[in-house]
Design brief:
Blueprint: H1 15-18, H2 36-47, H3 53-62, H4 80-83, E1 89-92, E2 98-101, H5 122-132, H6 142-148, H7 158-164, H8 167-174, E3 182-184, E4 189-191, E5 204-209, E6 213-218, E7 223-227, E8 231-232, H9 237-255
Parallel strand pairs: 1-8
Antiparallel strand pairs: 1-2, 3-4, 4-5, 5-6, 6-7
C-alpha cells in the first residue's frame, strides 16, 4: 500500500502508472486496504507472456468452474451481453431517498484492474464460491484453500491492529463481530469466532465491494452466499441491517 502523495499518475487508466507509489511499510510489517490485487493482476499477465488478464481468467477460472460465454469483463461497455443487463446504480441521500449514481469501476478499455475492475453476474461469482467450498476444488489445490481459511495476522501485531481500525469496512461483511474474532486470510476477512447476534458460526471467510456487495464462505458447513446491490456509499446502514437479517435467517435454516 502506498501514500496518495506518492502517486505519479493518479488519473492514468493503466495500473502500472496509477499505482506506481512508494510503500507505506515493508511487506509483512503492516496491513492496509490497497491496490495489491491490482498489481497481482499485472504480475499474472507478465508471467504469461503478456496475455490479457481477462483472457487468462476465461481459461483458468471461468471455464474451469463450468461457465460459458459471455464471461466477466473488465470493460463492460464493450460487452453488449453484460452492458444491456447492467443495473442502474443509486446513491442514498441524507434524507434516505435515492438518486442515480454511476459506478466507475468495471469499465476500463485500456487495462485490467485485477483488484476492483471486473464486471459479472451473481451466477458468475457464485460459481467461484461454490468451488471454494467444494471437497474437490477445480481452481486451487485443497492445501491452498486451507491456507485461505488460516489466520495470517499474529495476535498483538501491528498488522492486526491496522485491520481492526477498519471496523466500518469489515463489519459490513463480517456482521457485528468482536475484535477478538477478526483476522485476515489469503483472500478475505476471517471471522474466527461465532457471531451470536446473527447466528453466524466461526471460521467464515468473507469480503465485499463498493456497491454494498457481500460474500461469505464456510468450509465447515459447505455453504457460501452472495448478497448484491448497486448502492453507494459503502456500508450503508440500511443495507447493513438487511445483510445481517439475511444471514441470520440463512443460518437458522442451515443449522436446522
Amino acid at each position: 500500500m502506498a501514500t496518495p502523495e506518492g502517486q505519479k499518475s493518479k488519473d492514468s487508466s493503466y495500473v502500472h502508472e496509477r499505482c506506481n507509489n512508494p510503500l507505506i511499510f515493508e511487506p509483512g510489517d503492516g496491513w492496509a486496504y490497497g491496490v495489491s490485487l491490482d498489481w497481482a493482476g499485472v504480475i499474472v499477465r507478465r508471467l504469461h507472456g503478456g496475455i490479457s488478464l481477462e483472457d487468462y481468467l476465461v481459461e483458468n477460472v471461468w471455464k474451469k468452474v463450468g461457465l460459458s460465454a459471455p464471461f466477466p469483463t473488465f470493460c463492460i461497455s464493450h460487452n453488449p451481453d453484460y452492458s444491456a443487463r447492467l443495473m442502474q446504480g443509486a446513491e442514498r441521500n441524507s434524507d434516505g431517498s435515492l438518486k442515480p449514481y454511476k459506478f466507475w469501476q468495471g469499465d476500463n478499455p485500456n487495462d485490467q484492474d485485477g483488484g476492483h475492475g471486473l464486471s459479472g453476474t451473481a451466477k458468475d461469482w457464485l460459481a467461484v464460491l461454490a468451488d471454494l467450498i467444494s471437497d474437490s476444488p477445480k481452481l486451487l489445490k485443497p492445501e491452498t484453500v486451507a491456507m485461505m481459511f488460516t489466520p495470517q495476522l499474529d495476535n498483538g501485531s501491528k498488522a492486526l491492529q491496522m485491520l481492526l481500525q477498519m471496523r466500518h469496512a469489515w463489519e459490513m461483511v463480517a456482521g457485528p463481530a468482536s475484535d477478538t474474532g477478526i483476522n485476515h486470510g489469503l483472500g478475505g476477512l476471517l471471522v474466527t469466532r461465532e457471531v451470536a447476534e446473527i447466528g453466524q458460526p466461526k471460521n467464515i471467510l468473507c469480503w465485499g465491494g463498493a456497491a454494498n456487495t457481500v460474500w461469505f464462505a464456510s468450509r465447515d458447513h459447505g455453504v457460501a452466499g452472495f448478497f448484491s446491490t448497486q448502492l453507494h456509499p459503502f456500508a450503508d446502514a440500511m443495507v447493513k441491517g438487511l445483510v445481517n437479517s439475511w444471514k441470520k435467517d440463512l443460518w437458522i435454516v442451515i443449522e436446522k
